Amino acid sequence: MNIVHSRSGVTKQGALCVISREIQESELNKFYSRLIKLLQGKELGHETVDSLQRLHLILSATKYTRTLPPELQKRLVSLLSSPVEQLQVLSSAVLRETLPLSGQELNYNQENIGQLNSHAAALLLSQAGSRADLSSLCAQLLRSLESRQSEGPAHCLTHTLPILNTVLTHSPESLTEDHVTLLSKKLVDWLRYASITQGVGASSGGFFTGPRSRQPAPIAELDGTVSGDFFTVLCVGQGFTDDQWMNVYSFSMLRHWLLTYHSVSNGNTTADTANRLQLSLSLSHSHSFSYDDRSEVDGSVVSMVSATSSSSRLLPPKERLREKAFQYCQRLIEQSDRKAHKKTDTDLQKACLVEAVCILDCVCVEDTSLVFRTFPCIKGLFGRLSSDLSFARVLLPIAQFYLNHGEMAAVDCESVWNLVFGRFPAELFNDHFLAHELLRFLRLNLESLQLRVPQYTHSFPNLLKLLAWDSPALVDDFVDLLPSLVTTGTAVELLHTLLDLPCLSATLVLQLRSVCLPIADPGGRGLLSLDAFRNPSFRGLFLFLLRTEAGSGDTIDRLSTLHELLAEAADWPRVVQCAQTVPVLLHIFFNTVITVADEKLLAHLILVMLERSSLLLNIPKYCREIHRVFSCHLLRLCKLHPSLVVDQSHELLEFAGATANVYSKEEIYTHVVWVLGEYLSVSCDSRCSVSLITSCFEALEAVLFEITSSAPAPGAVCAAPRVITTLMSALAKLASRSHDLIPRVSLFLSKLRTVTRGGSVAWCSDEDDLVAIVTRGEELWSLLKAPGVAQSVLTPPPHVTTPQWHRDINVAMPLRLRALTNLTHSQ
């Protein structure tokens, strides 16, 4: 089996993965030897890279962790410091799949910490055995930050902060308070006091090359003007100094540091005593006030937007970092107003604005005194950007700032929420990234939005546009959000809106096509729905679907017309995907509404279900699923509140008395009939009179007689056996409560028995189904011969059905039943 020389693509990689699990040890040793020879060569070419990739695949596909030969292990460790990053990545990946040899664990001390890069650090972190190991590593890394360029390699600094950030992410308790103090001071130094001159580029040489000709130029702003303030990530130049690069790294991890440095260990017990002593000495030596004074004078030009007073230098490290972060972000906001020459710089401005506003939010959460200093800047930024939706990603963090601090600052936030809940979903519904960020913002702030932002609960017609456009990606978000949108004031309109979601999806497609396609396109296929969308006489129907807030009405009168106009959209992929999410959301809606609604609202919802069961966009599977959901929750509502059946008896009887519903709405019709037979009783509601029972009986009797006395219309299917048996049971239940009706039921059941003796009948095509119907009829007929028994069997009182003694494990009846079962059944 040759595992070295085959050159395979992605299709062969799975096969190689299987082969690697079955490779013999002798073949593996030959592969190791060949790889060692390759690594001993001066040129590490494509064959070496290919072999390392194969080795990684073999090791990762093996169930148990392997130990490599010492020579190979040594060679792989040396590759971690290779100038070729691909070799660093591969060697780190391979070593993470192996066990380190005894005494050969990767170890970096203060002398060689400068060789540490991000890939070696990933390996080092994976081999850390305890929190103490991580704490010791952090101490070494932080001490390396204290070294000057003459004392050690400066390039290691660019790897140090990402490593510390990784430790902070996965094990913040590994850092001690001393670590936090030192790193906070270093971040202040890099953020606020980086060089204000450009880094010196490589010299071209020549006779006239000298110190005077290589004088560094000052840094510039994105608009090309010379910078008059301290260095930030939005400054440009031909080259950058090491401390300017550290400024960029510091800003990239600043927000994460501000959010998580509270989780560090309060005690210093995890760090080695010698390390702590040396760290304390380095702190007192390097971060005295004289060093801060030097930074204040020599490290920067005095800021034109926020000059630091001498009192700020007396602040504790954390507070001083917050102050410098505040100044840095204020400067970024000022820089973002400059006109960049390149599109990439414009994108960088937007990204930095997002980060700056988020950092300002963090520092204001920690120190509320900064809120009043920050709000004028944030308010001005919102005023400048709010009219340009290309800055939508920046405006969301601004909205977060207003939500967190607007009440404290007593500012009017209405314009912010009109933008977030109005223009964003209405105009940017097809921006997938913004949709994700907006819904994430809503989920993270759900409780605050419900309490402080009244526009939120009334914005669901607009927010649901995001779901209508991209249902598969966003349905999970709306599963979390939908319960918060269900209130007594929005429930009815929200139910209609959910049912119209496929129509909304089609309308959004038409809206975009209407803008993109010309009115007359002779070469294109005409869309009747697009013509209807542009037709002024139908404009009101589509505008209602595209409304931005609730309150303009629960639904529209011409829904059937709208469905006809959108008939060709029933098979559009986006519409079909949207329709598939509606049943899930309806279950969540009904599960929530029963917790907030009174009986009056629930009665209204029952009417909506009956009405909308025939007013749905004609997608057959969608209609069946909606009917199934309606049936499920109709039973649940009536079980919780049986009086609803009497309250809505007129509408329920009207629905049950329509024979057409037997064929077109079998699922929901069956359940409506069952509800009428089950809960139309004096025991459920004292208002239930004999006349009401009689009128219900007559309506159901007429339907049952019609469907069992004649064949269905040509092309139509026979009535479902379940519908027939449910109608018979409902009639028997009603007759048991009004004995005058028993002869009428008995007469029908006896006729049914007589008719079926002759064999097949026109209204039932399946012989087995007919047998089941007749059997059910005979059971009911036998029960009705004894009216007292029939009522107790068909409608048992609650004290009989509720306890369910045969299932209660706290009583002896289940045990007795099991014992009797064992005695009566052969072993």
TrEMBL record:
It comes from Sparus aurata (Gilthead sea bream). InterPro entries: AP5Z1, AP5Z1_ARM, TPR_AP5Z1_C, TPR_AP5Z1_N. Pfam families: SPG48, TPR_AP5Z1, TPR_AP5Z1_C. Residues 477-823 form the AP-5 complex subunit zeta-1 C-terminal TPR domain. Residues 20-307 form the AP-5 complex subunit zeta-1 N-terminal TPR domain. This is Adaptor related protein complex 5 subunit zeta 1. PANTHER family: AP-5 COMPLEX SUBUNIT ZETA-1. Residues 348-465 form the AP-5 complex subunit zeta-1 ARM repeats domain. It comes from the Eukaryota. One of its GO terms (cellular component) is AP-5 adaptor complex.
